[in-house]
From TrEMBL:
Assembly and interaction partners: Homotetramer. Forms heterodimers with either ThiH or ThiS.
Record-level GO BP terms: thiamine diphosphate biosynthetic process
GO CC terms of this entry: cytoplasm
EC code: 2.8.1.10
The encoding gene: thiG
Record's keyword terms, sorted: Cytoplasm, Schiff base, Thiamine biosynthesis, Transferase
Coarse class of the protein's main subcellular location: cytoplasm
Name under which the protein is recorded: Thiazole synthase
PANTHER family in alphabetical order: THIAZOLE SYNTHASE
Length: 261
């Protein structure tokens, strides 16, 4: 069954997107990403060298763009102007690559998104020809505004970046999912495989994570677990769970035709 994730007109077999930060070295980065099965790999342009520093190791030597879709992001940006400038640099470094992840942070403690600046940056980037995937709060109204601007994917947080707290507000996520006509990808807060499965069971189109894999005791093994969790959650969503029946038992076996009755 063909069940591809389609973003900006391109199909992907994996619904797990992964980051590249916080690993002990590039070797571990590549082994974990291979284990995850991810095809889209996000890179913080302000923190990772993809060619802007000629005398430093280049991540693209480990994760070549002909094998992975590199998704430059604006981690560390606190204003629309900084985010736009950073992604224009990324486009130059990646030979006109248009698919980007926008995040404009509100403060360094929570890393919660600054939504007014995010909306401002998104509008500028879309007009400038970028395909914008956007990190945002789990506010259904602002998610709709970002879609109306022309963003190609909406990426609400499950909980704070790097917190590992899982999905704290599934109801808001469902409101966003039910209204969206573009992919909805949970971004931030996943801590373990069950969090990823829940996100997919809710109907999310994908999950993006970094810390949950990179900071696990065994990142490569956790990457494999996340791959399976995303696949299982997606299958469960497509299969359709049984209805919840409060205070109403329903035996697994038929009650008629019992032996001895």
């Amino acid at each position: 069954m063909n069940d591809s994730l389609v973003i900006a007109g391109k199909s992907y077999g994996s619904r797990l997107l992964v980051g590249t930060g916080k690993y002990k070295d590039f070797d571990e980065t590549r082994r974990a990403i291979d284990a995850s099965g991810a095809e889209i790999v996000t890179v913080a342009i302000r923190r990772m060298n993809i060619g802007q520093n000629a005398d430093e190791p280049n991540l693209l030597d480990v994760l070549p763009p002909d094998r992975f879709t590199i998704l430059p992001n604006t981690a560390g940006c606190y204003s629309a102007d900084d985010a736009v400038r950073t992604l224009r640099l990324a486009r130059e470094l990646l030979d006109g690559h248009a698919l980007v992840k926008l995040e404009v942070l509100g403060d360094p403690n929570t890393l919660f998104p600054n939504m007014p600046e995010t909306l401002k940056a998104a509008e500028t980037l879309v007009k400038d020809g970028f395909d914008v995937m956007v990190y945002c709060s789990d506010d259904p109204i602002q998610a709709r505004m970002l879609e109306d601007i022309g963003c190609v994917a909406i990426m609400p947080l499950a909980s704070l970046i790097g917190s590992g707290m899982g999905i704290l507000n599934p109801w808001n996520l469902r409101l966003i999912i039910d209204a969206a006509k573009v992919p909805v990808i949970v971004d931030a807060g996943v801590g373990t495989a069950s969090d990823a499965a829940i996100a997919m069971e809710l109907g999310c189109d994908g999950v993006l994570m970094n810390t949950a894999i990179a900071q696990a005791r065994d990142p490569v093994r956790m990457a494999g677990a996340m791959k399976k969790a995303v696949e299982a959650g997606r299958d469960a969503y497509l299969a359709g769970r049984m209805p919840r029946k409060l205070y109403s038992a329903d035996p697994s076996s038929p009650t008629s035709g019992l032996i001895g009755s």
